[in-house]
Amino acid sequence: MVTFVSHCFDVHEWSLIIEVYEVCRAIFELYLGLLMQKHTFSIGYRNIIRFKNTKRMVDIN
């Protein structure tokens, strides 16, 4: 009976640990996604500026 109760407690503890891990992972993935999106956006923005500058240089020449 005692082992059964401790076994149930262990299972509950593990499910709690897994739940916390899942939440942390979801938050981390969301943060990473936003960070990557911001990074790709800045790269795209820089490329657009570079393209405009090269186009302007071509127009001048």
Could you give a quick summary of the protein structure above?
The chain is an all-alpha fold and 61 residues long. The protein is built from one helix and no strands.
Q: Can you write the helix and strand succession as a string?
A: H
Mean pLDDT: 74
Weakly predicted, low-confidence segments: none
> What's the β-strand tally?
0
Structural class: mainly alpha
How much strand?
under 5%
Biggest sheet architecture: none
Termini separation: 89 Å
Q: Helix count?
A: 1
Question: Which value, in Å, is the CA radius of gyration?
Answer: 26 Å
Helix residue percentage: over 70%
Gross geometry: rod-shaped
Please characterize this protein's 3D structure.
This protein has 61 residues and is mainly α. The chain has a domain at 19-50. It is built from 1 helix and no strands. It has one helix at 2-60. 0% of the residues are buried. The mean pLDDT is 74.
